Amino acid sequence: MNIDRIVFAFAGTMVLLTLLLSVVHSHYWLWFTAFVGSNVLQSAFTGFCPLVFVLRRLGVKPGRAFE
């Protein structure tokens, strides 16, 4: 799996997890959902994503998402 697919999977998992936590635990988890969404949006415009930086340091190979 390459970096792009990991980022998509991680963002989707965080959104679903925080939505579930907001229903089960506290509605304040929706702030984390908003943070994830804004991070995805800003990375679409700037090309910078903190998760990509971490994954590169861990040695994950770069690549395109839909090869």
What does this protein look like?
This protein has one domain. Helix content is 72%, strand content 0%. The protein has helices at 3-24, 29-46, 50-57. The chain is elongated. The relative contact order is 0.22.
Topology:
Layout: H1 3-24, H2 29-46, H3 50-57
Helix pairs in contact: 1-2
- What portion of residues belong to β-strands? under 5%
Question: Any idea what the shape is?
Answer: elongated
Average pLDDT value? 88
Largest sheet: none
The number of helical runs is 3
* Proportion of residues in helical segments: over 70%
Distance between the termini: 11 Å
Question: What characteristics describe this protein?
Answer:
mainly alpha
Short description:
The protein has 67 residues and is an all-alpha fold. The protein has helices at 3-24, 29-46, 50-57.
